[in-house]
Amino acid sequence: KVWDPLVRIFHWALVASFLTAYLSAHDWFSVHIGAGYVITALVVFLLVWGFIGTEHARFRSFVRSPMIVLSHLKDFVTLSARRYIGHNPAGGAMVIALLISLTAIILTGMQLYAEADNAGPFAGLHLGQYIGLGADGGGKYFWEDLHVLFVNATLVLVFLHVSSVVIGSFAHRENLPRAMVTGKKAKDL
Asked: By C-alpha distance, which of 114, 70, 113, 103 is closest to 88?
C-alpha cells in the first residue's frame, strides 16, 4: 500500500477540477470560479496532508535537494533511474513545482476576480494601484495575463508529469497510473 485514499482522491479531484476550470474559463464563468475554489481547497488540503499524512504523502519522504533531483533526472533520461516505492526525486520536485504553480494560479485568479468584478476573497483589494497599474481597472489586464501565464506553465508541468509517468512505467515495467487508482505498488520488481 503506497498511496492512501486521500492522496488518490486528491489527485483525481485535482485533475477533474483543473480540467473543468480550464474548459470553462471563457463560456461558463461561474463554473470556472467554482472549480477554482475546489482547487484552492485541494491545495490547502495537500499542504496540510504533506505534514501530517501517511508516510509517502509527507513532504519529508520525497522532497530532495536539487543535486539529487538532477542526478535522478540524468539517470531517468538514460532509463537507468532507480525505482522508488513513493515519489522519486524528480516526482517530488514536480509535486512542489505544481503546488507553486497552482498557488500562483489561485492567487492571480482571486485578484483578477477582485479587479474585474469586485468579488471574491480579495474584493475591494486593488493591488494594481500599489504596483503602478492604477486604481481604474487597468490592473485587470495585468492579473489576467499573469493568471494565463501560470495556467500555461501548469499545462507544461502536467505534460511533463504525464510523460514522465509513461516513461517511468515503461522503464520499471509497472503501471504507475493504476497505482494512483488502487494505491498499491509491488515492493520488488
From this structure: 70
| Per-residue pLDDT tens digits for 48-68 | 999 999 999 999 999 999 999
Distance CA 127, CA 50 (A): 31
Q: Residue 175's pLDDT band (boundaries 50, 70, 90)?
A: confident
The rounded radius of gyration (Å) of the Cα atoms in the chain is 19
96 has pLDDT over 60 = yes
Confidence (pLDDT) at 137: 55
Using the structure block, give the residue that is written with the C-alpha cell 516526482.
91
Beta strands in 16-137 (DSSP E): none
Residue matched to cell numbers 525505482: 83
Which residue from 162, 163, 143, 139 is spatially nearest to 151, judged by alpha carbons?
Answer: 143
Long-range CB pairs of 9-14, under 8 A, 24+ apart, other chains included: 10/42, 10/45, 10/46, 10/49, 11/180, 12/180, 13/38, 13/42, 14/39, 14/42
